[in-house]
Each structure stands twice: as C-alpha cells, then as structure tokens.
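Appendix B, record 7
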Amino acid sequence: MAERIITITSDFGSKDYYSAAISGRLLSGIPGATIVNVSNQITQYSIHEAAFNLRNAWQYFPAGTIHLALVNRNHNSEMQYALVEYNGHYFVGPDNGIFGLLFDEQPKLMLHLTGPEIVSPTFRELDICTHAAIRIAAGGDIMSLGTQTKSLTESTPFRPVTESKVIKGMVIYIDNYHNAITNINRKIFAEMHSGGKFIVRFGKYYTERIAESYSNVPEGEIIATFGSSGMLEIAMKESSARNLMGITVNDIVRIDFE
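Structure tokens (predicted):
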C-alpha cells in the first residue's frame, strides 16, 4: 500500500474522541499514513466555514492527497456521502453542499458512495468516509466505491455584488486573530479600481487605503489588506477587529470608488 497523506476538516473539536477515532481507523487501515488536521475547530455544522479552510489549504498538498470534509449539518439515515476527484486530489464527505463551495468549476468525477455496513449510525463518517479513504489509498478502482453522478447537493457561495463605482461584499470568516475575511477578492477590486481614491466601509468604521501587509501600519490602526487567501481582510494591527469594532460574519463591507 502506497504511503498516503490524509487531511481532516471537521467540527469535532478537541474535547471529544471523534477526531481520534477517525484518525485511529485510518491508521489501522493505512499503515504509515500521514494525517494532517486542517482544523477540527470549525463552528458546529458550518459548511461555509469548513469550505473556507479546506479551499485555502488543499492546493498546497501533493497530488494524491485524500481530504476528508466531515462537517455534517444533517445527521439522518438518508444523507448521501460523496467522493470527488479534482486536480489529482480526492475529497470525501457528506453530500451536504460543501463540495460546491470548494472549487471554481465542477469536478469531472463525482460518486455517491455505497456501503459499507453501518456500525455507528450516529457517527456514520467513522464507517463510510474512513472506508472510502482506505480503499482509495489501497490503489483500487475508485469507481467500485459508488455510483457516478453528474451533480451533488448545491450550496451557493456568497459572492460580492458590483454596481457603478461600488463593490458590496460581506464578512465570510473570522480567523483566530479576530481578523474579518471578506468575499471581495483582489481580482474584482482591480477590475473596479481605476487608480483613484476609494473608501472601504464596514459598520461605522472605514479606511481609505489597502495596505500591502500588516507590517505597513502602526499598532492598533484599522487595516484593510489582501491576505494569503486572496480575499480582502479587515483587521486592527495586533488587536481584535472582532472585539474592538464588533465586526462579525455576515456584516456588510462596501468599497466606494471616486
């Protein structure tokens, strides 16, 4: 069995045994596997938060990596689980809309998984998703894992809206430093910005520039910058934008151009 890397993105947290059980089942079935936790601290049932983290992490792993997306907001016996192959990577998890948030284009191979026998009906990921990952790692025919499908459950990503001289976006994620990450990317900003002045507005606060990095502003100052995800971030240098400005997920962020 070839050595494999498996990533886990979940809302299991660190208090309970769930993450360890998944890892133990994988290591038992894939000796020598490397398991990387993208995050087990996703807000419970938030597929958008899970997708943001996995979307910005998976591309840095080598081809052949297996990514388990284990945030499930609909625990019932009718929930289908899916396997997606995209750019040489494998993605496994409940078909609850998360896969539509991970990619800019539809994957060419999508399966609805069949089997195995469910031993843990309240923790079906332990049976279904680890089984698929072990079979993929073994190098077998992945088509035997399920039934090919042309579509998966859709979940519409939050996209910014552009009008004449205005971009209207929103906060989609608050990171561990309490920075507010928006759905406004560098490309859409460049398309709207003609080189003149602009104002980035969020609540009662605003800034009139976008910094190249956090190092370019004094401590405690409001900063807007395009982070490593390519998205516009609102922050306070070495402080908490969430606590001091009250900014949170779904808040409107607006850029007005002259």
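Remarks on this record: Residues 122 and 174 are 30 Å apart (CA to CA). The longest helix spans residues 124-137.
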